[in-house]
Hints:
This protein has 123 residues and is an alpha+beta fold. It has helices spanning 40-56, 104-117; strands at 5-8, 19-29, 32-39, 69-72, 83-93, 96-102.
Amino acid sequence: MRRQWTTGDCWLWCEGTALPVLWLGPVLWEGGHAPLYACQRCIRRLESKVRGVLIRGASTSPAPERQQWAQGDCWLWCQRIALPTLLLGTAESAGHQVPLYSCEPCIQRLEDKVHAALPYVPA
Length: 123
Ligand SMILES: [Zn+2]
Ligand SMILES: [Zn+2]
């Protein structure tokens, strides 16, 4: 897949605005897809998480159509572990499809971002 840096807002941990960001992949969102962008620093952080997941032998090919709460680690801001998480979608990083899981408060936070970025998405 061809990737291009564009200027935009980082959707991951730093929450920076007007940065060079890369499209990571579509995140499943209320039956649709929302684009996920991240800056270089956060992509590095994601890649180190990815390596951790690969080392632990977790599946990197989830079935994103199945949205179910499952015990896991939140990949977003709170960084908590072993709590109910939902599969948000997959990002592409370091040549792997990476499942992105998040807890409910972080999903709410991302939802606010989605609605801010895509004002036409019905709330
Ligand atoms: Zn960032
Ligand atoms: Zn969280």
